[in-house]
Design goal:
Keywords: Signal. The chain is α+β, with helices and mostly antiparallel strands and about 190 residues long. Helices cover about 15% and strands about 55% of the residues. The chain has one domain: Lipocalin. The chain is globular.
Length: about 190
């Protein structure tokens, strides 16, 4: 009985091995479709700095804000880090997102990690900007970003049925240079 089970297992491996090997041929660099989709939002890459005006129940505050953005997996995904600073230099806000292209759905997806939470949202983007919406209690926060004359302008509004949109954040950022992040500093394979 053990011999029959071993033979069935070996036969299963022999059948699956060519399929697994062919599926992995392009995995280190993603697919051509993923890399092409990421090129449509390549303007995001680099380091950005400016201001973020945030409005909460406690009032409005202006913070220094930075973004650093780059690709991994051969350019098939984009990694984004947003970081706001208090006047004393401490962190007021920090978020990391991974932007990817789903070949089957023919759509972008962004997975964001911030303030102890994780959200996955649809993302629309092109050479002129991007848009995404996050559901929150009682409504949604809608983010619209445009790129004009080298300036990243982003507005986030809380949208609730029956009420006018309420601006919760507005950013003005200027690209300050290229960034090798996150690909730089990869661990070498050694000897």
């Amino acid at each position: 009985m053990k011999r029959v089970a071993s033979l069935i297992f070996a036969l299963g491996l022999a059948i699956a091995a060519p399929t697994v090997a062919s599926a992995q041929q392009n995995l280190p660099a993603g697919t051509p479709e993923q890399r092409e989709a990421m090129q449509k939002v390549a303007w995001l890459d680099g380091e950005w700095r400016g201001t973020a005006v945030m409005t909460t129940r406690a009032g409005t505050q202006t913070l220094r804000h930075t973004e650093r953005i780059g690709t991994l997996l051969g350019g098939s995904i984009r990694v984004i880090e947003g970081h706001s600073y208090n006047p004393d230099g401490t962190t007021a806000f920090n978020a990391v997102a991974i932007l990817s292209w789903d070949n089957e759905k023919k759509a972008y997806t962004m997975r964001s990690y911030a303030q102890g939470g994780v959200v996955e949202v649809p993302f629309e983007g092109d050479a002129n900007g991007f848009r995404w919406t996050m559901t929150v209690p009682s409504g949604q926060i809608r983010y619209v970003t445009t790129l004009e004359n080298g300036t990243w302008h982003e507005v986030g509004e809380f949208v609730m049925e029956g009420r006018p949109p309420f601006k919760v954040i507005e950013m003005h950022l200027t690209r300050i240079g290229d960034s090798a992040w996150p690909a730089a500093g990869a661990v070498s394979p050694g000897e």
